Amino acid sequence: MKKIIAFVSLLSFCIAANAQQDFYHETFTHADTLRGSVTPERAWWDVLRYDITVKPDYATKTIEGNVNIAYKVIKEGHYKMQLDLQEPLIIDSVISYTRFEQGRAENVINNDSIKKDGNTYIIAFEYYPQTKFDNYLKIVYHGTPREAKNAPWDGGWIWTKDSLGRPWMTVACQGLGASAWYPCKDYQGDEPDDGGSLTVIVPDTLVCVGNGRLQYKKNNNDGTETYKWEVKDPINNYNIIPYIGKYVNFSEVYKGEKGNLDVNYWVLDYNLEKAKTHMQPDVERMLKAFEYWMGPYPFYEDGYKIVDAPHLGMEHQSAIAYGNSYRNGYFFRNKEMIDLSKTGWGFKWDFIIVHESGHEWFANNITTKDLADMWVHEGFTNYSETLFTEFYYGKEAGNEYNFGLRKNIRNKQPVIAHYGVNEEPDLDEYYKASNMLHTLRHSMGDDEKFRSILRGLNKTFYHQTVTTQQIENYISDHAEFNYSKVFDQYLRTTQIPQFEFYFSTDKKKVFYRWDSCIAGFNLPLVLKNDDAKIKIYPKQDWQSMNIAGNQMALFNPILIEKMYYFVAKELQGMNK
Ligand SMILES: [Zn+2]
């Protein structure tokens, strides 16, 4: 999720677009580098777990809390650590201890040893943290977290009311970063390997929902209740989210590929009936289609959950945020339902249930280390919409849906953005990357192979953070063709290749080549219709082949462009 709002500017709606996504800025600040790169103060330690405790105050829009970070030392001899916490939140104290020294007072870090640099803190330990123990930090903090004005597009804490005027609170912070509300190593490449917990103290008139499973709920006899939720699996920082409101719950056991999956629906009390009639059927359809195409749901230990949210939606792991108004299509600007493909197929299902849940495979299971490679999240997830459409409405429907989305490709800048500066790519990471996957699939000409690659990616990189190179190499290796030039073309340039062809006068021969492409671009093409199927290997020099009568129809630009994202063009006057 993230940049649908920028996309709608393409539809020539008048909107205040997500500014950070709308231009290709080449200059980055010191703060961008601190946030987006593996600084020396980040490289030596690996986060094992976050245990977050927070108490929000609805009236004053403030929070207070503490975070326990468990980490291990992966490179010895460093004593300075970078932590991230965004202004105007304030760190009150930091306590450092090992497993055998929990809470020893002498390990309180002197305030002089904590240097603030904008949204980051450099903490100097008196001694090198030890490799032989797990190390811990307890960070106490408080303040007024940045408030989201246009969630989920801008990010921050959301203090709102439900339609009956009762308090409703949550957070959306993709892109902005989890350090907008709790101290952490705010870098996508380091997920807490052992998961984490979220303990929230809320008024006893409200309910708190978090990621994973509820560990306990207790009444504090002071008008508040404490909820503790826990995830066992690694999780992206920005996915750890509390939802606080008048929630009710129902659940089911879904019989999935890995056995019983606990599925929970947490919705506002007045949405209960709609959740049963609208939400539950699409969740079940989603699980069936996605397990078929992409393999088992990646978080059986933590269960699957979908939670009412006061914003459109987000892929919060094992607690998907839902705000699509319980209707099919995409709830555009809280106003009307639209179909992003403009083909009608997008009105057959609930966009947020399908898209945000698709991220459980690509974004939450397989996470990119650097934001620059986010096409792996958004491209595959966008393509999961095509796969869902195809699963329920047939191949032609899927092709149409994908082709419909193609009109949103901008080609203003490469799909892969700048590394090390926390820059998320242009929205071509959705539609262009998805069309590239559609292209690769048809180039393989073998849907079973393509499906086994999607499933294989989710198995091989299970609960891991990756680079685009790992994903590209995996696809090439398993497709048994080196697609590196094809990835370079689609992910690293804005040029659209052109496939040119013409026939000999007697129509017994066809000549073809690639043009408008990078040197070495070599996408093989499987061309097929109901009558015939061929595989050709065009190069940038003219190639030719003899064709039988029923093969000529395969060279039809409209047919070809439905299967592939490039320009197909028959050259006239070249016949010989
Ligand atoms: Zn997305």
Give the topology.
Elements: H1 4-10, H2 30-36, H3 40-43, E1 45-57, E2 62-73, E3 80-84, E4 90-98, E5 114-117, E6 120-124, E7 135-143, E8 156-161, E9 167-172, E10 196-203, E11 207-209, E12 213-219, E13 224-231, E14 243-245, E15 247-256, E16 259-268, H4 272-294, E17 304-308, E18 313-314, E19 320-322, E20 330-332, E21 336-338, H5 351-358, E22 366-368, H6 375-393, H7 395-406, H8 428-444, H9 447-460, E23 464-466, H10 468-479, H11 484-492, E24 498-503, E25 509-515, E26 525-528, E27 533-536, E28 543-546, H12 557-563, E29 567-570
Parallel strand pairs: 1-10, 16-17, 17-19, 22-23, 24-29
Antiparallel strand pairs: 1-2, 2-7, 3-6, 4-7, 5-6, 8-9, 9-14, 10-13, 11-14, 12-13, 15-16, 18-19, 20-21, 24-25, 25-28, 26-27
Helix pairs in contact: 4-5, 4-6, 5-6, 6-7, 6-8, 7-8, 9-10
The chain binds zinc ion.
Zinc ion binds next to α6.
